[in-house]
Design brief:
Order of helices and strands: EEEHEEEHEEEHEEEHEEEEEEEEEE
Number of strands: 22
Radius of gyration: 20 Å
Number of helices: 4
Distance between the termini: 18 Å
Length: about 350
C-alpha cells in the first residue's frame, strides 16, 4: 500500500494524498520544512506551525541548506507546543530562563555561513521529572569529552544534546565544542563513558555499544565528526556518550549499530540515532516488537541541496495499521556525479 504524507515547504502545500482502503488515525500527518536563515525568522515560523498543532521532529544533517522538520503528532494535543531558537554564543546567558520556563533542547542546526542554532521546545504538558537546571560544557577535542563531562555527571547532570561540534582549524577560526546537560528533579550522581569509533568497519564498536547498553548504561548522545570538526570533510569519528546511575539494572535488549550505504529497513526496532559516517549512514536502534527503523531516500542535485532549490518528497509504504514518525534527516555527498542522497529516517509502528 502506497501512501504520501502532506508535505509543506515554506508554507505552500506540495502534496496531500492518502491512498488507503479505509481512514487511518494518524496516517495523514502533516509535515512542514522550515528553512533556517537566522534565529528570529526560524523561531517565528516554527511557532507558526506549532500553533496549528505540529511538533518538532528533526533537523537536517549533512546538507548545505539547514532545515527544521515538524510533524503533526499521531495523537493531537489540546494545547500547542512552543519553541525558542537560540544561537550558540547566547546559550550560556539564556539557560537559566529556558530552564525556569520548562524548555528542553531538541536539535541544533547550522545555516550556511551562520551561527549554530539550538531549537528548544516547551511541551504542551509538563513532564513529571522535567529538567530543573541546565549546564553547558565546553571541550576542545571530543577525545577529551569523558573527562570534561565527568564532574557534571557526578552532580546528577545528564548529557542531552551536542549543541556545537568542536572545530580545530586555523587560529581565529577554531571553536570549542558545546554539550548541553540537564539535571532532573531528584536526580542522583551518575558515571560517564564515551566510546570512540574511527574504523569504517563498525563491528567492534557495535560490540562495545551492545555490552554497555545491556549493563545498565543509557546512551544519551551519539554524534559523528571529521578529524578537525569541519562540516565539509568526511566524518571519520563516531562518539557514543553513555551515563549510568546508581543501582542501574542489566537489560536484555542491547542497542544495535550498523553502517549502511543503502536505504530501506535499517533495523527491526526503535530508532535511537542516525548520522553520517565515512560517507555512509550510521544507524543505532533498539530491538522492539512491531517497530522498525526505515529510511526513505531522495536524490538531490547541488542546486536542490541549497535552500533556493530544495525540493523534497516523502513516501511511506506499509499497511493500514502502520504509524510513521520522522526522527531524522541525514544527507551524504555522492562521490559520482555530485549532489547528495537525503534519507528521511522513520520510526514505523505496526498495529494499535
Amino acid at each position: 500500500m502506497f501512501r504520501r504524507l502532506a508535505l509543506i515547504v515554506c508554507g505552500a502545500t506540495i502534496a496531500v494524498a492518502v491512498l488507503a482502503a479505509a481512514p487511518v488515525e494518524g496516517a495523514d500527518r502533516e509535515v512542514a520544512w522550515v528553512f533556517v536563515a537566522n534565529a528570529a525568522a526560524a523561531e517565528r515560523e516554527i511557532n507558526g506551525h506549532a500553533a496549528r498543532g505540529l511538533r518538532f521532529a528533526a533537523v537536517t544533517d549533512g546538507l548545505p541548506c539547514a532545515a527544521v522538520i515538524m510533524q503533526s503528532p499521531s495523537t493531537p494535543a489540546a494545547d500547542a507546543a512552543s519553541y525558542r531558537v537560540v544561537a550558540d554564543r547566547d546559550l550560556a546567558t539564556a539557560l537559566p530562563g529556558l530552564g525556569d520556563e520548562g524548555f528542553e533542547p531538541r536539535g541544533s542546526v547550522r545555516p550556511l555561513g551562520g551561527r549554530t542554532l539550538v531549537v528548544w521546545e516547551r511541551a504542551p504538558q509538563p513532564r513529571p521529572r522535567r529538567v530543573t537546571e541546565w549546564r553547558l560544557a565546553e571541550f576542545d577535542n571530543p577525545d577529551t569529552l569523558e573527562s570534561v563531562l565527568a564532574p557534571l555527571v557526578r552532580e546528577g547532570f545528564e548529557p542531552r544534546l551536542l549543541a556545537r561540534v568542536a572545530l580545530r582549524s586555523w587560529p581565529g577560526l577554531s571553536e570549542k565544542g558545546l554539550m548541553l546537560l540537564g539535571q532532573r528533579t531528584k536526580a542522583g550522581p551518575r558515571e560517564v563513558r564515551v566510546l570512540r569509533g574511527a574504523s569504517r568497519n563498525v563491528d567492534a564498536l557495535a560490540q562495545e555499544v551492545g555490552a554497555l547498553s545491556t549493563d545498565g548504561w543509557d546512551l544519551d548522545v551519539m554524534f559523528t565528526t571529521s578529524r578537525d570538526g569541519s562540516r565539509n570533510t568526511r566524518r571519520e569519528r563516531a562518539y557514543f556518550v553513555f551515563t549510568r546511575g546508581e543501582g542501574a539494572q542489566r537489560v536484555s535488549t542491547p542497542l544495535k549499530v550498523v553502517r549502511s550505504s543503502s536505504w530501506g529497513g535499517a533495523g527491526a526496532g526503535e530508532p535511537v540515532a542516525t548520522s553520517l559516517f565515512w560517507n555512509d549512514f550510521l544507524f543505532v536502534w533498539r530491538p522492539a516488537d512491531r517497530r522498525r527503523t526505515w529510511a526513505t531516500p531522495t536524490r538531490l542535485s547541488d542546486f536542490d541541496a541549497s535552500c533556493a532549490g530544495l525540493s523534497l518528497k516523502l513516501r511511506l509504504d506499509g499497511d493500514d495499521q502502520q504509524r510513521s514518525t520522522i526522527v531524522g534527516a541525514v544527507a551524504r555527498p555522492l562521490e559520482a556525479g555530485g549532489g547528495y542522497e537525503l534519507i528521511v529516517v522513520l520510526d514505523e509502528r505496526f498495529g494499535f
